[in-house]
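Backbone-to-sequence.
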């Protein structure tokens, strides 16, 4: 299993709208992607920092997802909620309980 972590800073006045967009638009779209296993959206309401963690069956599935039009479409959905750019990292999931 592979985890893709994307982090950034949200504009404070649009944080709730960002959360709703993630839950109601991005997650349903992700569910249709090959290898998708789940997602978490973490929020620090004091600083505006947000972290999306998506889980994939393999690193190949995550990378294919990033290179597809799907990924760009999701970025467009959230661009107005962000201050600055996003940081994307990938991790092997070594333990899952």
């Amino acid at each position: 299993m592979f985890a893709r972590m994307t982090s950034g800073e949200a504009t404070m006045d649009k944080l709730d709208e960002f959360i709703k967009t993630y839950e109601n638009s991005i997650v349903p779209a992700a569910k249709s992607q090959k290898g998708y296993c789940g997602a978490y959206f973490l929020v620090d309401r004091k600083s505006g920092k947000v972290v999306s963690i998506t889980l994939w069956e393999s690193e190949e599935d995550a990378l294919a997802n990033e290179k597809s039009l799907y990924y760009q479409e999701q970025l467009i959905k959230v661009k107005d909620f962000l201050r600055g750019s996003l940081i994307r990292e990938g991790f092997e999931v070594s333990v899952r309980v």
